Amino acid sequence: MADDQQRTALAKASKPPSQEFFSTLITANHILHYHNVVDAFGHISARNPQDDRTFFISKSLAPALVSNREDIEEYYVSDASPVNKDAPKGYAERFIHSEIYKKFKGVQAVVHGHPEVVLPFSISSIPLRPVFHMAGVMGVQCPIYDIQQHYKTSDNLHSLLVTNEHLGAGLAAGFNPSTMISKTTNLIRNYITSQAASTPDFPPNPTVLMRGHGFTCIGASMQEAVYRAIYTCTNARVQTTAMLMQGSYNVGLVGERFGGGEKETGPAKHEDVKYLSERECKDAWTANQGHAERPWKLWCAEVAASGLYGNELGPPPGA
């Protein structure tokens, strides 16, 4: 039985991914650019559906300019090295992708970008949290990866770029952060059973912010990763607007109270933005997940109608 499984795996690995796979990856690059998730920088990758030991990502190109199979390179998950030893220059931050694929077997696509709308949440004490139903996809919370905590003496440049395995591993760990209680529980369990704590195939936090850098999100498919990236940015815009409005309202309350000569000396009334509960967040994504093909079809049509993008492999499935 084991020999049969091994032969099946080897036969599958020897077969290259379909043209539809690469067409989807090309269009995903274009959609992310069209929706301002990426600009000249940023990238999306996809795990090899035929061999989970490798992944595909474009060469060192602006995402909007990826247009054919030759623009895409294959890399090993183990160390982010190119399968083709003569491969041209690639993304310096491909370790973001390799380390996430290495840690989480269920992740099939990774998006990394630097959208300005998300950046303020990576450098302030205000958490990025879902505020409307379409944002349940981003997860209940968005942990912040502070690369400063992960540098080693061997890191000559503290550039905030994830350019090696240990920096990528630190980021990957952020998708499944442990609380002190869970750490203690795992230590006790490991001590009693001599077993390592299990890592989920797909982590509980699908979106991680990166201090002063941007964000990274994951998906069980390329379409899901794109959906998550776009609605994470949308939520950031809505949340920012809501906080500005709420802040102005609270200032008005304070002015009204003290300007009116009230004699009360207790704390002034303070209102806050209403966030989705953990249950609402999870259930909203459960409900919307079954309709994710609708925006994908629209987004494909948008980039196809633009004169900027070209996909020589033709429209992807579902377009």
From TrEMBL:
Question: Which keywords does the record carry?
Answer: Lyase, Metal-binding
Gene3D superfamilies for this protein: Class II aldolase/adducin N-terminal domain (3.40.225.10)
One of this protein's GO BP terms? pentose catabolic process
Query: Residues in domain Class II aldolase/adducin N-terminal?
Result: 23-240
Keyword Ion transport appears in the UniProt entry: no
Which terms in the GO cellular component ontology are assigned? cytosol
Q: Which InterPro entries match?
A: Aldolase_class_II_sugar_metab, Aldolase_II/adducin_N, Aldolase_II/adducin_N_sf
Say which domain of life the source belongs to.
Eukaryota
What are the protein's GO molecular function terms?
aldehyde-lyase activity; metal ion binding
Entry keyword Metal-binding: yes
The protein's name is Class II aldolase/adducin N-terminal domain-containing protein
